[in-house]
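DUF1468 domain-containing protein, pasting as requested.
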Amino acid sequence: MRKYDKFLTIGLFILEAFYFLLIKQLPPKAARYPYFVLGLMVFLTLLLAINTFLIKPKNSEEDKEEDQFKGNLYGQFFLIMALSAVYVILIDIIGFFVTTAIYLFVTMVTLKSSIKWSIVVSILFPVFLYLIFVSFLKVPVPKGFLL
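Structure tokens follow.
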């Protein structure tokens, strides 16, 4: 897993540099929030870089991680891609929040998360999105026949 973390870290730093160049083209007032998001991204990528390049893992933990994901990556990848395609199609039919809750639950269960956390996240995250985007920012979201 550490090999993939190294590629991910380098790729994220490249993406963040590109994102920074795009933000520089915005007016200063409009660039505040993107700079904030970029700062969070850089901070989290630095944490990943420290964990990946500086902290030496215990061999038993790395072997356990490799065994956990062995043989599941391709099947899970294609299943998540199919679920994502269905999610995009169903957003306009069912509604953004209901579809998001179902998508999160099914995706987390597919990725072998605990049922308890899958339920909690699939309920709380759409509520959080509703409060931020609909209530606070007044952003319209796709509405279906449910919500």
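Note for the archive: Helices lie at 2-24, 32-54, 59-69, 73-94, 96-110, 115-136.
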